[in-house]
Amino acid sequence: MFSSEGGVKTPGKEEMKRMKENEVMSYQIDPRTQQQKTTEYNLISLTRKICMEEDIQEESLAEFKERRLGGWGLLQLTAGTGLAVYAMWAGILMPGFRRVPLKLQVPYIPASKRQVQNVMTLLKSRSGGLADLGSGDGRIVLEASQLGFSPAVGYELNPWLLWLARFHAWKTRNYGRVSYRREDLWKVDLSGYKNITVFLAPSVLPLLQEKLLVELPEDALIVAGRFPFPDWTPCSIVGEGVERAWAYQIQALRGHNQSKGIKMTVESS
Ligand SMILES: C[S@@+](CC[C@H](N)C(=O)[O-])C[C@H]1O[C@@H](n2cnc3c(N)ncnc32)[C@H](O)[C@@H]1O
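The joint structure predicted for all components is written out below.
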């Protein structure tokens, strides 16, 4: 079974036959009990099987080593993987975001039931139009519409989420009452909305502060979920931890800026 080079060698047909005959003979003249003999026979067969399997594994490994990737193959593999990841990002996770600068791209993370409730608590006693900036699957717009906000509009760039939002509206018989628009929130004119909701990343909030201060009417209220606006003082807060939501009155914010001599400007892109 072992070759002269020290490696494991598969026994040939003749050798196997001889081994089997020896085994049978020693088995016949062996004085041990039938059960002992059977156990030993089974052990020998198992050992032989393992040796043969090791041979096959070594052969496959040698074959694989011979076919190792060269530099060009590695480059192709890397490029292919990169392309697949990009296609997944651009086509499934962030479609419609090609024209939005990378630092302003916010991925989809839906608000929890508690977060939606907290936002609605802060909107109590409010009325008029509402816009959710980055509306995802439309859950906030839908809830706001059921509380009587009209028009209730969601701005979203991801077409899959827009489709899902419309489907939810249709399923809950609210299709005509809500509206989901495929528009970049940075380019929407918000001057007609008295109520704004945002569930966005902290990285984009400083820029959004400027846009809201310039565009919103004097009696507007902004509700932010998950992350507060970095430079503003809220008029009320509801919830704890990641479920927390903050409300801001635009009038108070402008008054504060005026008293500090801060000018409102928005750079056009
Ligand atoms: C954190 S999710 C919040 C979704 C939803 N408001 C909710 O609370 O369930 C942010 C959403 O904003 C959308 N979004 C990000 N940037 C946008 C942009 N420039 N214009 C429109 N939608 C945007 C994303 O596609 C994503 O669905």
